[in-house]
Amino acid sequence: MCYSVSGISLVASLVIIALALATRVCDACPLVVPWLEFIASVVGLIVWVGAAIVLTILVKEADDVGVPQKTWRHSIVGLSWSGVLLYLIALVLSMFSVVCIACGCCGGREPSEARRAARDEEASLRRTEKEVAEEAGGRMPAAYEPAEAPTAVGPMDEDAAHAAPEEVEMQQQKQQYPYGVHEPV
């Protein structure tokens, strides 16, 4: 019995994973896939509820007779009820998508062609920095130029921005100490 429950559970889990990936990765039919996820969750939940009930009854009978290794049997029962809980969570999560499609309260899911068209339109409207630079005659407009790094003593003038590091340090000292730097005697 445990092998058949494990096999059915494994197949149901793989179906749920494949359908979830199909929905999110390759834009499979968004109106059918949530229903298939829901059905796979229901099948997995039914299998695990049945297995958990049967195992609980069998373990109780074995405990009443006094068969050794009681903790191992109880761990199997605990794991089977954990499987019920996990499939119940999967069922509830897949039910949200099904309810959205059925009632249309959240707009359902757009057909994949409409989503793809909206993405393509958005991509065509976006302009790359290279296109903007080409329109500006090869120079990046001010809006696309990187901002100057802030300094601790204040902004630098245009000449200092392209100067050597020693000159930049001197310029910063002049801004910080307008009356000159006093050297210790």
Number of strands: 0
| Euclidean distance between termini CA atoms | 93 Å
C-alpha Rg, in Å?
33 Å
In sequence order, what are the helices and strands, one letter per element?
Answer: HHHHHHH
In short:
Helix 1 (2-24) runs antiparallel to helix 2 and helix 2 runs antiparallel to helix 3 (70-103).
General description of the model:
- The radius of gyration is 33 Å and the shape is elongated.
- It contains seven helices and no strands.
- The model has no long low-confidence stretch (mean pLDDT 75).
- With 185 residues, the chain is mainly α.
- The longest helix is centred in the middle third of the chain and has 34 residues, at 70-103.
Descriptive labels:
185 residues, mainly alpha, 7 helices, 0% strand, elongated
Task: Please write out the topology.
Blueprint: H1 2-24, H2 33-65, H3 70-103, H4 112-125, H5 129-135, H6 158-161, H7 165-176
